[in-house]
Specification:
254 residues; TIM Barrel; two-stranded parallel ribbon; 15% strand
């Protein structure tokens, strides 16, 4: 049983759950790694599958995750870096089809698919129009959220393309490491919080979290879905911050 009250349209969790260094911080010491997912879902209603960026899981693994979680628990897989970082969206139709074949069973319990672009990839309007067109062929069955890591993407041309295809611009905080920009381009907002002072390794202050919670509450009241994932996994900051955000958004909307 989950230890929190659901907030309609609000999805908040962390980028993965299988962190052994969370033992004794988030996971009680008696909880074994093979039980981490079952414990995780008592606190959160979704998770970002960061591992699919590095290697595609087996279909049997995806099936196992589905069987171990309740019907309202949602997954947001991260698109393979083979497509984004190696092919750079060139001739990627076949590997994209393979990706969705692996995750086919998860389709009904899938949030937006996260697409993280490499820092060295610059915005080219015509190329991205073609790439988004290919991704759109998988809609409305799948939704997409794109995280940029070069400042050339912060342009009205890109935001307009996203809006035309109903895709989300990922609002991602990583301090000064990568560009930060706030804009909502679809009927769902997608936010990734990597740590403001130190990438993956800094705690968010309560004032900072309250400011984010206020934004999330405003978007929810506008009728948007909101997806929030903490990726500052060092010292269990991600779970601590995510739980605080859920409680704070709930208090703002009460």
């Amino acid at each position: 049983m989950r230890g929190f009250r659901e907030i309609p349209g609000f999805h908040c969790g962390t980028s993965g759950w299988s962190y052994r260094h969370w033992s004794g911080i988030f996971y009680p010491e008696h909880v074994k790694p093979v039980q981490y997912l079952e414990y995780y879902l008592t606190k959160f209603n979704c998770v970002e599958l960061n591992s699919s960026f590095y290697h595609l899981p087996k279909k049997s693994t995806v099936s196992g995750w589905m069987k171990r979680t309740p019907g309202d628990f949602v997954f947001c897989p991260k698109l393979s870096r083979y497509i984004t970082h190696q092919l750079r969206f060139k001739n990627f139709e076949e590997p994209l089809a393979r990706f969705f074949e692996v995750f086919d069973e998860m389709k009904e319990r899938m949030g937006p698919v996260l697409i993280q672009l490499p820092p060295g990839l610059h915005f080219e309007k015509s190329e991205m129009r073609n790439s988004l067109g290919i991704l759109s062929r998988w809609s409305p069955g799948y939704r997409f959220a794109i995280e940029i890591r070069h400042k050339s993407w912060i342009t009205e041309d890109f935001f307009l393309l996203l809006a035309q295809h109903g895709m989300a611009f990922v609002i991602a905080d990583s301090g000064s490491r990568f560009p930060y920009h706030e804009i909502v381009t679809s009927d769902y907002a997608y936010v990734r919080l990597h740590g403001h002072e130190k990438l993956y390794a800094s705690d968010y202050s309560e004032p900072d979290l309250q400011r984010y919670a206020s934004k999330f509450s405003d978007w929810l009241m506008e009728g948007r879905e909101v997806w929030v994932f903490f990726n500052n996994d060092f010292s269990g900051y991600a779970t601590k911050n995510a739980e605080y955000i859920i409680q704070t958004v709930h208090s703002f909307l009460a």
